[in-house]
Amino acid sequence: PIVRLCINYLGTLLCSLCGYQTLKIFDILVLDMITMVKLDFIPLCSSFVYSSHQSLVTLVISDKLLTAIDEQALSSLFQSTIFHTTYSDIHLRLFLEFVPKTSKNLIQHSKQSYYNKYIFHRVIKQFMIQRHDPLRNETCIQSIRGKRFPDKFYPQLKHNSSHTLSMANAGSNTNKSQFFITIVP
């Protein structure tokens, strides 16, 4: 019998836990089983968790039944913000531990509705969308610090999936407030 089902936040992976010490992971998009794992305990709880230390989602399995998610513990992993557009809202999860200046810059601009007056001025189908600098002359671009801030690169953080956000800039260490979001990997 199936004890528990969970789905990752993108809605692409499903994990089923069975009372027979078995875990199965399915690709929802192609309706196919990816793997089956025999466990040395009876699984009672599972959850997909994204940690700022990893570029991949981790599946956490427990032999204890947890009835509530510790929101405070999860909120320490990332900070959320929302950009409102005329088309739809964009919900962002920003990882302060890896990119504190970038995260704080985007959060503060979002709270002050800084981006609301600007459009996604660069849209490349099947690649990315870019927000800011509609005049293309950098007169309206600023960071919350009033100056440029340095790039941050981590080998484990890659642009190999859709919906990844990065700063757009004019070269090394010239970040201000422009950003882009990948549409496809």
Verbal overview:
Helix content is 9%, strand content 34%. With 185 residues, the protein is mainly beta. The protein has 2 domains: 2-73, no CATH class; 78-182, Cyclophilin-like (Cyclophilin). The strands form 4 sheets. It has a 4-stranded antiparallel beta sheet with strand order 1-2-3-4, with no helix packed on it. A 4-stranded antiparallel beta sheet has the order 9-10-12-11, with no helix packed on it. Strand 5 and strand 6 form a beta hairpin. It is elongated.
List descriptors:
four-stranded antiparallel beta sheet, Cyclophilin-type_PPIase_dom, elongated, mainly beta, rotamase, 185 residues, Cyclophilin-like_dom_sf, Cyclophilin, peptidyl-prolyl cis-trans isomerase activity
Unreliable sequence segments: 68-77
- Mean pLDDT score, rounded? 74
Structural class: mainly beta
* Total number of domains: 2
Supply the CATH architecture of the largest domain: Beta Barrel
Gross morphology is elongated
Write the CATH homologous superfamily of the largest domain: Cyclophilin-like
Helix content: under 10%
Largest sheet: 4 strands, antiparallel
State the order of secondary-structure elements, H for helix, E for strand: EEEEEEHEEHEEEE
How many helices? 2
